[in-house]
Write a structure and sequence with these properties.
The complex is a heterodimer of chains A (120) and B (347).
Chain A: H1 8-23, H2 29-67, H3 73-86, H4 93-111
Helix pairs in contact in A: 1-2, 2-3, 2-4
Chain B: H1 11-27, E1 32-38, E2 46-53, E3 60-66, H2 71-78, H3 89-102, E4 112-113, E5 122-126, H4 134-139, H5 147-162, H6 177-190, H7 196-206, E6 217-219, E7 228-231, E8 234-238, E9 245-247, H8 250-256, H9 276-285, H10 293-319, H11 326-333, H12 335-345
Antiparallel strand pairs in B: 1-2, 2-3, 3-5, 4-5, 6-9, 7-8
Helix pairs in contact in B: 5-9, 6-10, 7-10, 8-10, 10-11, 10-12
Classes of the chains: A mainly alpha (120), B alpha+beta (347).
Chain lengths: 120, 347
Amino acid sequence: MPTDRPTAAELVEAVREFLTDHVAPNVEGQLAFHTRVAVNALAIVERTMAQGGAMDDAELARLRELLGQDGDLGEMNGALARAIRSGAMDNDRAAVLEHLRLTAEDKIALANPRYLTPRG
Amino acid sequence: MDAVQNPDLTAGEQLAAVLRDRMAVEYGPGTKVEDLVRLSGGASRETWSFDAVPPSGARQPLILKRDPMDRQADKQFEGVPEGRLAVDRWTEGRLFQLAGGAGTPVPEVPFFLARDERTTEGFFTQRLEGETLGRRILREDTYAGARPKLAFQIGHAAARFHGIDLDLLPPMRGLPAAEELLHYRSIMDSFHQPHAGFEYGFRWLQERLEQAGDRYTLNHGDFRNGNILVNPDGLRGVLDWESAHLGNPNSDLGWMCVRSWRYGYHDKVVGGFGDVSEMLDGYEAGGGGRLDPAEIYFWQVFGTLRWGILCMILGFTHIDGEQRSIEYAAIGRRAAETEYDLLQLLN
């Protein structure tokens, strides 16, 4: 990725601001709704560019620990999904559930941070 | 016979002509059609509002719900696996009538619209005053007096339509809980995107299938805050019966408890307005018997997972190019919310 400014993240931010400041005030109805949806989607991209790498590293480290094997994130998630379905993880439920909860919290922190509620 | 849109007319002009002919049959020659306006922009169904005005007699505020004239849009919707399960308009209208006859509040369905060369099939309902948008029902002062009653009324209404004799129902698909679970899992598998969180939910449910309960009745299929009509006195109508099917009635009550329709009021489990115990009190008062909260909880988990799979369906409807849509793309990401809710519910 080039390091020139504006960076990819700064361009996404610029498009989001353009939609918010210049498009949204001038449209109505379905188009206004879809503009808000587009703004939210770009905000997800921005949060992912800022935080996604560290989240991936942490998720992969947890998956290695759980599964006792190595691979990329896609392979490891596939392996975990198959292991849950087959019952192979039934004796490690607490650890699996804790991993899944941490992963889901990270997904929400990217997709819709306001949705997070304190852990009870 | 397929309905064809005349290119020289707008959709509204062609429909107005159809409605004038139809209303003349119902209310007498010379009945006018006024204030015709399309309400929903959805690709799957068309909803129109209008008034029938007989030469002498009362103005009739009506809603028409019909299949889309744009058959391309219909085909795209049918490509969504869940879409194939929907009932047709004749069945949907009939269910309004049967539910109303059983004591569920619904708008009256006075007559139907047959398919011909100018229009697709549909049915008419009374147009009632009230609110259907979930957020407004939960926030606006107008409904402050209604909100405390809703969970009880929801339970009561469900008991009434769950009690309809199966022999009276039009032909509908039906799935026992175990098969319904596999149905949604096979949809997930069709996307070839392994999902460990949902997988954990499927396993949890499979291990507890005896908690599903063993009753088999009419299910509304999309019984939630958003498909109910509320006025300042409370529940006025249960709407949108297009997802109706046969199955476990607890499924409807669990679906009502999914967090996605609480619109931020997440400590009010039932639709953002009430508690499970109030809903069960209403269900018992409506003649449905005393339900076990553990069964409702099972179906709340099931419903949360089902909504996650439905989000995936819409996301992949966009990704696979069947219907490119920023809205569908964004809903695809809402699967993360349902996964988060699901894992909070599990133990």
